[in-house]
Amino acid sequence: MHIKKQRLLTPGPTPLYPPALHAMMASDIHHRTEDFRKAYRSCLADLKEVLHTSHDVLLFAASGTGAMDATVSNLFSKGDKVIVGSAGKFGERWAEMARAYGLDANVVSVPYGQVVRPGQLEEALAREPATKGVFVQASETSTGAAHDVQAMGRVVAKTGAIFVVDAITGLGTMPLNIDGWGLDVLIGGSQKAFMIPPGLALLSISPKAWRLSETSTLPHYYFDLKKEKKSGEAGESSWTPATSLILALAESLRYIKQLGMEQLVENAQLLAHATRAAVVAMGLELFSPGSPAASATAVKAPRGMDSGVIIKEFRNRFGAIIADGQGTMKGQIFRIAHLGYFDFADLFGVVAGLEIILKANGFPVTYGTGVAAVEQVYEQAAVKPQPVHA
Amino acid sequence: MHIKKQRLLTPGPTPLYPPALHAMMASDIHHRTEDFRKAYRSCLADLKEVLHTSHDVLLFAASGTGAMDATVSNLFSKGDKVIVGSAGKFGERWAEMARAYGLDANVVSVPYGQVVRPGQLEEALAREPATKGVFVQASETSTGAAHDVQAMGRVVAKTGAIFVVDAITGLGTMPLNIDGWGLDVLIGGSQKAFMIPPGLALLSISPKAWRLSETSTLPHYYFDLKKEKKSGEAGESSWTPATSLILALAESLRYIKQLGMEQLVENAQLLAHATRAAVVAMGLELFSPGSPAASATAVKAPRGMDSGVIIKEFRNRFGAIIADGQGTMKGQIFRIAHLGYFDFADLFGVVAGLEIILKANGFPVTYGTGVAAVEQVYEQAAVKPQPVHA
């Protein structure tokens, strides 16, 4: 018998920042008091700061899908023409949601593991100049592929359509110049790079997107962008907020501000780079080699091995929860997460564990091969010590 | 300088059950694992048990208003005739929501402090036999008044309409026989009698209400009752759940089960009864004397005194957060809460504090008068010791 620490190593929920978790203990706080308004205001202001945006930022008591819903139900009308760029399970969610709200959705989809090219959106927009919105994922979590939202934003900005980016796993894992790249609505969730449990959704919204809200006729109530903006300006939320998570977010944002958002992104990208190097060194194959995301690295299970075996072995041998493929990818890929509160020590553990699991299950790997690749990346990057806590 | 402990004494968020709060620390858990499914399943099963219902029970990552929205957007269609029984701020929320979704709402309203009589609903239903739904609050938190939902349910059951009850502060403070009284949809929130922070909404739904979902045409996505029922049967939520709050809820439900829902209701009712006795003994006036709720007792501020003064004094002198009136009642009433994790020691503190505050602000009160009234009720009821923790 050995000690097995429980480790949550998935691309959301991600490992939690302990001071943020502890902050939740103070949630015997009333949401219509100055004490709470202070925390709420600091969350909104700090979010604007770490997102580097002048756009309005709104918070919701909901998971990320709630902010996606808020965007569709507040900015569009039945029959509106929209384009969905779909590269996986979350792209399909945009398409499903557009249909649920009666939008006329043109779904530009690519096979899992690939990405929608900006040119494809450009062509679709040219074919339908009346398009009111373009929906994509910054990072498609299900396949570990990243979209070029900068180039896409340039394409969409030339049209009357707004560019809606689900950055739930993109935030904190890739540069996202919201104001500069024309990312009219950008959506995030608490349980990703913000290092706290799920239950809060957020979005930033540009003046171009606000204009659409003036003509939108879809009914909505709980998710009400205008009402939430007004409430937020008073340091409150429209409905009872998820106080415990707001307190946690205020704490994690202090840490992210101290670290710097660029540094957080670089951290994820460096870990992703090291992971890809390890994967190749061990003789495994990347699932999205062309445009890998830094949120999570998707790796193909070795031929003849179900990825579920690797997931199960991680749990049984090491107490670690690793992500399987989602949807049709289940059993075929596994995903190593990097977004948020991850460090090199986590990665050494994951790669060494993977080496042991692969060898034990008949895939030839020389112990240390993958870990050495990570060590090389660490050394080359000359990783500087960072503050442990804010 | 004295020690002032922070005390949250409002009708939601309410005082938190410490073991439930501590359970949130284990929220480094993935929602698609058997460990989490176990917690989620136990929440759903325990909710059915403490609600004493055979109806489906669903959970949402949202505040209570989210479950109200889910009910309207999943069960109705634009133009549907509905009746709203409105006795305060939350009744107005039903009316506002019905209008937001384009329903044809007949609002039967009474002045703040009074309640809608079952006969008023009966007349309204007789005038419009095509009515598809009747909406009320079990306990109108803004005024501390309780509706006779049993008699109302009998009236609605005779018609084709469904009876939708916002029991966000009714649950755990009054008997609610969901199946027996025809409460087709009953809505609750985590931050009330469930003794945990806000961020979870729940509802129970009858077969009669499910039938409406077959013809409803309002668009919706995040709040999807059918999808949530299917997910729940698999021990999951449709979207990422608020894991920390689910773990907290599982813990508080263990306690509520051990205590017994009847005992929880009796606890609130006894505290409410004692509070009313104290209010009268101190020479103050109840705001809803005719049908007082056990969720919170609304008390009129003495003539010439703004209730805001009492709220402020409680915070400054005793570190206690007491609720002011809401909406138009702000400054006129204050509310003493009883729902959930409240005991006699809390009430002794509140009433003694109130005596001090009243006297200091020029309202003549003999020290001990209100407290003695509470003590009398305690003695007469022969309150039996209950387990401190589950």
Structural features, described:
- Two copies of one chain form a homodimer.
- With 390 residues, chain A is of the alpha/beta class.
- Chain A has two domains: 7-13 and 261-381, Aspartate Aminotransferase, domain 1 (Alpha-Beta Complex); 18-259, Type I PLP-dependent aspartate aminotransferase-like (Major domain) (Aspartate Aminotransferase, domain 2, 3-Layer(aba) Sandwich).
- Helices cover 42% and strands 16% of the residues of chain A.
- Chain A has 13 helices and 15 strands.
- Chain A has a seven-stranded mixed sheet with strand order 2-10-9-8-5-3-4, with helices on both faces. In chain A, strands 11-12-15-14 form a four-stranded antiparallel sheet, with helices on one face. A two-stranded parallel ribbon of chain A has the order 1-13.
- Chain A is globular.
Chain-wise SSE layout:
The structure is a homodimer of 390-residue chains.
Chain A: E1 7-8, H1 18-23, H2 34-50, E2 56-61, H3 64-75, E3 81-86, H4 89-100, E4 104-109, H5 118-127, E5 133-137, E6 139-140, E7 145-146, H6 149-157, E8 162-166, E9 185-189, E10 200-205, H7 207-213, H8 225-233, H9 243-259, H10 261-281, E11 285-286, E12 296-300, H11 307-318, E13 320-321, E14 323-324, E15 333-337, H12 344-360, H13 369-381
Parallel strand pairs in A: 1-13, 3-4, 3-5, 5-8, 8-9
Antiparallel strand pairs in A: 2-10, 6-7, 9-10, 11-12, 12-15, 14-15
Helix pairs in contact in A: 2-9, 5-6, 10-13, 11-12, 12-13
